[in-house]
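PROTEIN DATA CARD
Card holder: Copine Va
Chain length: 526
Origin: Lates calcarifer
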Amino acid sequence: MDKVEATATVRDFDPISGSIPATKVEITVSCRNLLDRDTFSKSDPCKTEVIDNTLNPDFVRKYILDYFFEEKQNLRFDVYDIDSKSPDLAKHDFLGQVHCTLGEIVGSPASRLEKPLGGIPGKKCGTIILSAEELGNCRDYATMQFCANKLDKKDFFGKSDPFMVFYRSNEDGTFTICHKTEVVKNTLNPVWQPFSIPVRALCNGDYDRTIKVEVYDWDRDGSHDFIGEFTTSYKELCRGQSQLNIYEVSCDKDSRYCYPLSVSSVSLCWFASLTMTSLVLKGNPSQSTSLHYMNPYQMNAYAMALKAVGEIIQDYDSDKMFPALGFGAKLPPDGRVSHEFPLNGNIENPYCNGMEGILEAYHQSLKTVQLYGPTNFAPVVNHVARYAAAVQDGSQYFVLLIITDGVISDMAQTKEAIVNAAKLPMSVIIVGVGQAEFDAMVELDGDDIRISSRGKLAERDIVQFVPFRDYMDRTGNHVLSMARLAKDVLAEIPDQLISYMKSRGIKPNPIPPAYSPGDLPQTNPV
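Structure generated from the sequence above:
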């Protein structure tokens, strides 16, 4: 029998935080070249249903899972040969098992992962093929622009300062706010700026679902004056600018009108674009109190943060080879200070094989280099930016992970580097370790105030900062605390990736055709 165990939770739309429901994916399972454990026939593997007498089953039953990009969702698949009607798996022949993550399946080419089954020493157990397909309309983004005519005059000394508020209807008849436009000052005939919104946030993918739009006159004290409202649906809005798509903003006997100037939709399939990750480490390991201290019984803060974030990111890199850099150190043999050196010591090839390779290179570098200030971020940001500048067609998206103690010596140059990098397909994650003040990191994050340099604003917000100390579990549960760290630090990556693709007019890759049983030969097709 094929049994799936997944550590995933169900989460709904939160009207306060504005978060969006998880993507639902459908997992399809096939196996090839299973062990033959039956004496007089082939094995009879099953996953809910039993497929008789084949070593190459394609299971019909699907598994629907909630997929969260920012979480590591572990899966285990067990395959059994069913020999009786007993529900006790111990009474059936075990054919093999495999462990993976949901992100590993989604991040594989065409979202199709093939792995060898294991679990029986000395035996080749065959192969399991896992395919993921996103369900519903959660790839759709709507881009809309509205205008209005002859709105009510609400200001005594002027006209009105109108803005729009969009709500989607709920099953209980209530409405949930999902978007506000900007305020257009001093006009009764406003033209609002175009905006983009996920269709699942607007109507949860139901094109006939009621959408309510309210129009207000903005007041500085927050007591905005109600001008009027209308209801529509995404299906109606998709008709665009036409006589059939003019809405009366009803409030009193006078007529005021609002209508869309344009409505367009794009379907996004973008996770396959996340193909490369760079990781950077810095600090001073001189004694047991050092953040880099190599405790034989426990990973230090740098290693824990690297492992927590890196294990999730690596699922979306096709070859699992990562350039790992250090900065702020004197290098052998001459003690030259470098702010951009390969952790593995190989200038020609700084790539490490997976997270284990990076951790090994990190520990080796602590034995060979003398970590030394000052700490300059700009060289490593520019280093990754050079990679990103060479691939701007949407086929790759770069993530730079910086793990640092919070001290930064080239703030002005780093801000300029980030402003320039905001034009490129890349994001920057900063994890601050230790007890230092992280005011500079917060400024780089740009959540409250968009980062700028030489009077030039960053095109996008590409930096996410979190302090490691906020995730240290006092009970010592490092697994749980590192899962929380990875979740929060990666939460903004999908939207940052989408914002780059949309700003460059890059359309998503077509969704690959679903895998069919005929794609691979079967010994006994059933």
